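hey m, so remember when u said the tokens were messed up on ur end? i reran from scratch. heres the input so u can diff it against urs
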Amino acid sequence: MVLSGFTRFRSQLVLGVLCIAWFCCSALIILWTKYLLSGGAIVPATRDQRPLFPFPLLITLSNNTGCALIGAGLVLWSWLRSNLRHGEPVPWSPPVRWPTGPRWWRFLVAIGACTALEIGCANWSLQKLTVAFSTLLKCTAPVFVLFWSILLGIELFSWVTLGSLILMCMGAALMTTGDSLQFSIVGATVLLAGIALGGFRWALSQVILQRTVRDSSADPATKTAQQTRVDKRLTPLEAVVLLAPVTAFFLAPAVYLLELRPLRELLRGPSRETSEILAILGSLAGIAGLVFVLLWLEYAIVQRTSSLAISVVSIMKELLTILAGMVTFGDHVGWRCFLGLALSQGGFLAFLRHRQGWLQRTPDTDAPSENSSVSQLVPTQPRDHLAPSEVIEASDEPHAVLLDVSMP
């Protein structure tokens, strides 16, 4: 009993540390990106007050490309170490599996495409909507996540959950609503479409992070129970390494269509100082590294809780950021802000009260055995409940490439 309580406390402590690190990393990325887009958010503005790099989609493409390069570096490092050890597994190194099978690739392609479309819709809508109204609409994300989660069978519908989410959305709306809002039906529709795609992306991410993987490489007509292997779940590191290049691939056309011409005009304009060029390149590299860490943290939180939980926490993060900005910069705080904060906190507490067990939903994230193949997703099933004939030792198969990645 004492051991169970200690294990539960440790899992909650780890989850709390992950959430705090995620919040800090996200805030730093926002500030650093704002510095690139405006030229004066972190350090003093440039002398001519011009933006350093006003290309949000290109920055996002750079972030995902950087994450892909970091992942490729980890895979290359793993391959070199594996060759130096003559194919022996490297101790204390989480494996990275390259999945096989059309179903896995459908998941990866769908998540990458939804991520690219979500970012594109959000950036395009900013041309039609104010930041306040955009933030208002973005606070509806948990409702879309709940819808897709129920549709995919990873969440159960509950009126209490839906009511708490609506209460949080109403509170966020009051906090972000000013005396007047510039409203555009086209912009709002595009942004809501992007938010819906984002909810679908998070629900799919939860599926690939929390469902166990079962591979049956034998012919279905002749296979036996001994030919079925049950592997562990996809790890957060694997999710980042696999999804970053897919997202970058789908972002490239949007960058080409929307930002290539402005980029050419910028390059043909007045030459920039060396310090500005170094600041841009250094910022792009630094943000890409932070995004890699942020994505790992997000996937780790989703794996330990749910996509709905992280979407709820993201609302509270946005509201705390708005409140901190009001306090720091001396913005006017009216009755709407306090009422909205109270409603959001009430909805958040109601959500936690109803879902008091979600903090303990910490699945086994151990890595699968070496040379395992990933080809099909099946519902989560504890290994202890499997018959001995359903679990066999790993064997040599040419269907997947498994690499041991260990941090230096």
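this time it looks ok to me. The chain is about 65% helix and 5% strand. if urs says something different then somethings off w ur setup not the seq
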